[in-house]
Structure formats: structure tokens, C-alpha cells
Write a structure and sequence with these properties.
The chain has about 160 residues and is an alpha+beta fold. The chain has two domains: about 1-40; about 60-140, Lrp/AsnC effector binding domain/regulation of amino acid metabolism (RAM) domain (Alpha-Beta Plaits, 2-Layer Sandwich). Helix content is about 30%, strand content about 20%. It has five helices and six strands. It has helices at about 1-10, 15-25, 25-40, 80-85, 110-125; strands at about 60-70, 90-95, 105-110, 130-135, 140-145, 145. The chain has a four-stranded antiparallel β-sheet. A two-stranded antiparallel ribbon has the order 5-6. The radius of gyration is 21 Å and the shape is flat. The relative contact order is 0.14.
Length: about 160
């Protein structure tokens, strides 16, 4: 049944009927399996990948990757502090990673100052947070395996002397 998940990961708009044709199953069986995946928490959400450069009048949310070093708590490890952090509305993703830091956050704000305020007042001041390092995203080239097309650039007039 893994084929169903692979198809949906590549294009969540694929209908159960189309999946049935691709996998050689009955559409009713595919629908039941998708429902089982949804009810069981395997499929958490369907999402669209948006190229922000292609949206006219885009509000240009500022996104940052924040590396966080934490001191794990006795008996609960990283999970308790991670839950406190990922429950902030500014945090869009939170990952436990190996390497020189422990958590990798994806944070969004309306401005650089908003993200900086989050880091300084909410994140860095938390007990068990030892260190943070913030990296602002300047441009998206690819997300979830999809390469973005660049927005058409306005032609500049030639400068003549």
C-alpha cells in the first residue's frame, strides 16, 4: 500500500480513481486505505507548495532557520522543551537533529524585527535554551522536491551617456 502514499506525496490532488489505475487496485479499496491513513495519523494534512515570488502584492513574510542548543531535561529528554518551543505560533516547523545543535526551527514573522523579537524575548530567555543561531531565508529555489520558476524580471532601461 506504500504506492498510494508515494502518489499522494507527489501530487495530493490525485483522485482515488487515478491511484487505482496506477496501482492496479479497486477505487473503493484505495478510498478505504486513504481514509485509514487519514484516521490513523499517517496522512496529517494535504498542502500546496507556493512560490512566493509569483504572488503579486505578496506580503513577503520573513522566514528564518534557527538552530537551537538545549539542555535536555531529566526523564523527558528533548521532547518537553521541544513541545514548549513548537507551540509558539511563530514556529512553523521544529526538528530534532544531530550535530552541533539540537533543534532546527523554521520561524515566520512579518519583519526581521518580529523574528528577532521572538528569538530574544521568547526563545533565548527560555530555561534550558543554551544558544541560538538565526539564518534568514533570502530566496527559495526548491521546496519538497519542486524547483521554483523565477518571477519574470522587469527589464531595465539601458543607461547611455
Amino acid at each position: 500500500m506504500k504506492d498510494i502514499l508515494e502518489i499522494l506525496v507527489n501530487d495530493a490532488r490525485t483522485t482515488p480513481e487515478e491511484i487505482a489505475k496506477l496501482t492496479g487496485q479497486k477505487a473503493a479499496d484505495v478510498k478505504k486505505q486513504i481514509k485509514k491513513y487519514e484516521d490513523g495519523g499517517t496522512i496529517v494534512q494535504y498542502k500546496a507548495i507556493i512560490n512566493p515570488e509569483m504572488i503579486e502584492g505578496n506580503q513577503n513574510l520573513v522566514r528564518a532557520l534557527i538552530e537551537v542548543s538545549i539542555t535536555p531535561q531529566k526523564d523527558v529528554g528533548f521532547d518537553h522543551i521541544a513541545a514548549r518551543i513548537y507551540n509558539f505560533s511563530e514556529v512553523k516547523s521544529c526538528y530534532l537533529v544531530s550535530g552541533s545543535y539540537d533543534l532546527l526551527l523554521v520561524v515566520e514573522g512579518n519583519s526581521i524585527q518580529t523574528v528577532a523579537e521572538f528569538v530574544s524575548s521568547k526563545l533565548s530567555s527560555m530555561e534550558n535554551v543554551r544558544q541560538t543561531s538565526t539564518h534568514f531565508l533570502l530566496k527559495k529555489y526548491k521546496e519538497d522536491g519542486k524547483v521554483f520558476k523565477s518571477a519574470p524580471r522587469q527589464k531595465r532601461l539601458n543607461i547611455t551617456y
